[in-house]
Amino acid sequence: MTLRRNLKVALAAVAAVAVALPLAACGSADSGKTTISFLSWDNEQIMQPFIDKFEEENPDIAIDFSYSPPTPEYIQTLQTRLVGNQAPDVFIITSENKADLMDNDYVLDLTNEPFMENISQANKDFVSRDGKVYGMSLTSWASGIVYNKDLLAEVGVEEPPATWDEFLDLCQDLKDAGITPYLETIADGLSRIPDAFLGSQFAQEGVDVTTLVDEDPQTPGADEKEAVEAWMELYERDLVTRDTVGISGDDMKTQFANGQVAMICTGPWDFSTFQDADMNWGYAPMPILEEGMESYAQGSPSPAFAIYSKLEGEKLDAAKKFLEFMASDWALDQQTANGNAVTVEGYESEVTEQYTTVYQQNVQPGTYFLSTNFYSNPDVLITAQQAESQRLVQGEITVDEWADNIDAKMAAAQ
Question: Staple partner for 35: which of 29, 87, 213, 354, CB 3.0–4.6 Å?
């Protein structure tokens, strides 16, 4: 590493800590109280109601809150504090940092804690290794097909069909009627459709997705090749423009809201746009690759709460109480009010009418999959998928080459 690179890393670390430390004001140390530090990537406005309620219910505990925005800045801040012996007592674990946190024994094993009993298995799998769970994830999201009911009605259809072949036929019918059938964005990475297909395939084959990270070599390209071949039929049949490589998520969303396209694929974060557009829209589960397969969506658990592994005594007890509180009905109600879909067993979030089917069919049972959650070096995989998917859609490479190129880049990173 060059001197210039060393200096950049050092300055980045200093800057990261500088962002977090001035915000540590929500729960300053009080005499006679046990104080635990909490580093979050949700800001103070979001977390303050949780902290206030927890401290009200636990007057002998104070929360020393700090914030760093997701994702790279948060990970750098946390890493700087961990290696600098300033570890927060409670912090966030997610796909981008879970391997490092587990490898270095920074996170406490929560497997047998009482507050983990009702956590969804999919949320546990997200932050598991070798049968042990290292975080508490409470909410999840799942993508689906957003559709314009009025445009589908022009070809005599009420909602997108359940299978992929039928979905392609619907796209053809819409195109023949002079309606742009479908639009997606490849500007930022792989389409959402192949992850949904791969989740179904893994479920059918009985694959334990938590073991993918341990494979040597890892082959996410080969794993997803069949799913990508099926997805590419959209382009081979000229049912969607290859300009998707340059269309942003906002462009896609705007065209749909303006009635220029019949269907797009996105998640609940875009619902407000469609509601504000005052349009007649619906939200359907992702189509399944083949008849008889289980319905899966591209989706993911939320980042999880983790406890620093070296905590002991009163601080450890207080940290566990905080996680127990975050899984309480009051806290889950607050999560729902914030627009999150809770996946704790025995609890059901109130979601918008259009999201109900996907929430009940995919989110609650955990039938969703996100490839970058289950392979090591997710940053490498994201970059590889983005570059190779754009080349694939533009016709520069074949699906076989797409898979080989991704796996070669992953192998080089291991």
Answer: 29
What is the residue type of 213? V
Match 């704790």 to its residue by tokens. 344
Are 199 and 122 within 8 A, CB to CB? no
| Distance from C-alpha of 108 to C-alpha of 131, rounded to nearest angstrom | 13
- Cis peptide bond upstream of 211, omega within 30: no
Q: Which residue has the higher pLDDT, 329 or 14?
A: 329
At residue 32, the pLDDT reads: 83
Which residues partner with 183 through β-bridges?
A: 264
What is the residue-wise DSSP string for 89-121?
SEEEE-TTTHHHHHHTT-B---TT-GGGTTS-H
Determine phi and psi for 137, rounding to 5 degrees: -105, 130
Q: Is 78 exposed, middle or buried (0-12, 13-18, 19+ CB in 10 A)?
A: buried
Give percent of the chain with pLDDT exceeding 90. 90
Contact 135, 127 (CB under 8 A): yes
Instruction: Identify the band that residue 278 occupies on the pLDDT scale cut at 50, 70 and 90.
Output: confident
Q: What is the pLDDT of residue 31?
A: 64
H or E, element range at 3: helix 3-20
Cα three-residue angle 357-361-365, rounded to 5 degrees: 140
Omega prior to 365 cis, within 30 of 0: no
In which order are the strands placed within the sheet that holds 281-284? 182-183, 263-266, 144-148, 281-284
Q: Report which residue type is found at 94.
A: T
pTM to 2 decimals? 0.88
Q: Which residues pair with 281 in a beta bridge?
A: 148
